[in-house]
Amino acid sequence: MRIAVTGFDAFGGLPANSSEVAVLELARGGSSWAPGVLNTLVLPTVYRLADQSLRALLHSDAPDLLLMTGMADSSQVVRIETCARNLDACPEPDNAGEVRLGDQVRRGGPEFYPATIDVRALYRGLRVRAIPALISDDAGGFVCNHAFYVACHEIERAGLPTQCGFLHLPSIAADGWTASALAHALRVCISVLCPAEGSSPPRPLRECPRAGGCPGAIGGRRLRCRRIDWTRLGFRRLVMGWAWSERRDPPGRRASKGTKAW
Known about the structure:
Helix content: 25-40%
Structural class: alpha/beta
Shape: globular
CATH architecture of the largest domain: 3-Layer(aba) Sandwich
Distance between the termini: 65 Å
């Protein structure tokens, strides 16, 4: 099995791009853990050059899995993108100074290309290992979305067997993320999408019933979620402002004058 993981170089005056940091850290850690041959590539944050580099990668040695990554500076979790959009629309210039405002990535191409990896399985695999993640349906309008669309279009046009997906990674400074934590998240993604022979899939994730769920902890530390049933603990009356003493008194009897009320 051939696996390719890509990131982007720094852009917009930022000192680093977390996707580049993660990909380089992944490469430094070796590939003995990988279920196949691992190839890493840092793409230039330039529309035209990223386009050329991706097409060269896909046709030189078509990978079975292409896992692309970029940086979402405002995010604190791993964002799993569900689709690429046929639209370049970002007021920020790429590293060559080019600005695209409403151009199609491929003229006449479909409006969207869906990710061909198992997005839900990847989400469960990350969350069950306490790596915070969410599923996103908007990869943006900059070079990240452009490259994702180009890859999907080229895979379909050439009839390649490559599965393709895109992750937006948080910045290094976000919520304690480090290079090793990002590389660990990528290793988990690959192990979920390309399980080794004889390995068992991660257990199904039991979602937290609270709105928004419970974010996992970084670095393998699991954040235990305990949803407290206040009714069973007998605090409903406390919350509603009733006299605590009413629990002890016979029905119909009001608390005496000296009884303390909560």
